[in-house]
Structure formats: C-alpha cells, structure tokens
Amino acid sequence: MCTVTAGFLQLSALCFWIIAIANSQGKLATYTQRPPPSSTPPSVARQTDRTSSTPGNGTDQLYPFFDYYVPRNITTTIGQSAFLHCRTENLNDKSVSWMRKRDLHILTAGVLTYTSDQRFQVIHPDNSDNWTLLIKFAQPRDAGIYECQVNTEPKMSLAFQLNVVEMRAWISGPPELYVNEDGEVSMRCELSQGPHDLGTIFWYLGNVPVFTDQASLQSIRQPRVSVHTEWVDGLKSTLHIARAKLADSGNYTCMPTFGQSATINVHVVNGEHPAAMQHGNRSAVSGQMTVHVLALFSLVIMLSNPVLFGH
Question: Could you give the CA distance from residue 227 to residue 281 in angstroms, rounded to a whole number?
C-alpha cells in the first residue's frame, strides 16, 4: 500500500499510476473457488427418486417401478380373451405375481400358474419387462379387479379393472317380413361398437349359410343375393335379395363373430300383396265364422220348434 510521507503529492501520483496499471493488466481480480468434483454420475443422479441403498456394500441399486401409462381399465366380450398388460422396470432379483382381488387368490407367480382354471396364464417373453395376464374365454364372473404385484418390502401393487360385457346383434324392423314374389327384400343387422375388433357377420337361412349368388354374376351386373358389410360406427351387414322367390321364405339369422345372433322370419307370397293377403285372410276367417254361427243358430231353432219345419 502507498504511504503518505514527505512529498505527499508526488507519492500520491505514483500510487495512482500503480493502481491504474494493475487494473489495466487484470492483476486486481476476484477469484471464486470451484466446487469439488461430484462422485455421483449424472445418469444416476437423475434417478435418485428410483434408487435405494443396498445394505452391505454401500452401493446404489435401481428400485423396481411400474409403467403407469399402460391401459388399466380393460373391456372384453363374453367368450373372448382378455389381456392385462403389466410392465415393470428395474426388477432385478424381484418377481411379479398376479392376484384376483375379490378372493385374494394368487393366480400366477413369475411364469408359473397357481390356479386350476386353465383359462389363466401369464405371458412373459424372455428379457422383457412385460408380464401379461391372459384370461381365455372370458365369462361375466371374471369381471373385477386384478393386481400386478412385486415382492418388494413394502410390497408394490398396481390395480387393473376388467369388464366383461355381452354383445348382441339386432335386425331393424319387425320380426316378420312379407314380400311379393319377384319383389326385393333387404334385411339390416347391426352390432354396436365394441371394445376391440368386431369381426364380421354371417347370414343363415335356417341352418344353411347365405352367400352372394356368384352364378348370377355371369348374366347380370347385380347379383340376385348380395351381402354388404361395413365397419362404420359399429358393425352393419345388409342382406339384399332381388326378385325374391318362394324358396327364399324362411327364418334368417345374422350371426356375428362375437356376440349374440338375431333372427327375422321372411314370407315370400305369390301374387297377392302381403297387406291385402293378411287382410283377406282375416276377412275369410271372419266370413267362415259367420257361416258357422248362422248354421248353428238355425239348427238350434229347428230342434226347438219342430212344427215349423214339418216335424
């Protein structure tokens, strides 16, 4: 430091130039101490919420955890297979088991099955984090909560809800359909949107499958019998019969791949309009009943007054 003695002005000027030169050369600078290097790799530091201390060796081991982004509200239909996908990571030496909540029954442990119901099975490909519970031919009694568990301490579990529904097809219109011979018949079968692939719809006349009339394609552009199926807002199938024949009469069934079938009874009549035919039949029956009543009434009068009839 500059001291003030004799020759104050000269020394003060000398101190000023010393300080100025030091500042210009960066000698008067502020230094900060660097932090000591970290002993924890960044990749491990980012997963501190998934680590636990392993007793005995003082090292860090990744802790098991579930993948919560898998579907956990599963819906299937009666008779189909249900798949409950459980994904675990960092399992290490732990094992995965499946438990049915309603009766606390252990269904699987690891790749082994612990139930006599052979419809239950665990699917676990080698070196995979997926432990899928498969339930074949699902029934309404299978609906409920299932838990995927890992034997940590404390135990880890993830709940899955299984819904088993019944799908039923229906045919629009009345259950009885009347049509003139050589007329057109259209039957529309529908199946509501389901939880998965709806498959398709098959038509039967009695027990015989109904197919498109391929032979008629050789002579006309439009087949006499055609089936059109579409998968828009559910499953819809239309059976169309052009120039109906008497042999087309019968009980038609639309049978979906998954779900209950629906039926309709078709009557192909000759000549007379169906409505007039039904009305005519009712008139004929009514007329026949009138004749029978009059005959019975005449017989009663004749028996009660034989003199009037010459007896």
Answer: 33
Look at strands 201-205 and 112-113 and give their pairing: unpaired
**Residue range 156-182, pLDDT digits in tens:** 999 999 999 888 899 988 999 999 999
Q: Of 281, 275, 191, nearest to 230 (Cα)? A: 191
CA distances (Å), 174 to each of 46, 183, 263, 290, in order? 67, 18, 10, 31
3-state SS, one letter per residue, for the chain: CCCCCCCHHHHHHHHHHHHHHHHHCCCCCCCCCCCCCCCCCHHHHCCHHHEEECCCCCCEEECCEECCCCCCEEEEECCCCEEEEEEEECCCCCCEEEEECCCCEEEEECCEECCCCCCEEEECCCCCCEEEEEECCCCHHHCEEEEEEECCCCCEEEEEEEEEECCECEECCCCEEEEECCCCEEEEEEECCCCCCCCCEEEEECCEECCCCCHHHHCCCCCCEEEEEECCCCEEEEEEECCCCHHHCEEEEEEECCCECEEEEEEEECCCCHHHHHHHHHHHHHHHHHHHHHHHHHHHHHHHCHHHHCC
pLDDT reported for residue 167: 84
Q: What is the CB neighbour count within 10 angstroms for residue 167?
A: 21
Range in 15-24, 88-97, 220-229 the model is least confident about: 15-24
What value does the mean pLDDT of the chain take? Answer: 75
Residue 82's CB is within 10 A of a number of other CB atoms, namely 24
**Environment class of 244 (CB within 10 Å of its CB; exposed 0-12, middle 13-18, buried 19+):** buried
| Angle at the Cα of 7 from the Cα atoms of 5 and 9, rounded to 5 degrees | 105
Question: For residue 23, what pLDDT is reported?
Answer: 45
**For residue range 274-306, what is the model confidence (pLDDT) as tens digits?**
554 444 444 444 445 444 555 565 665 666 665
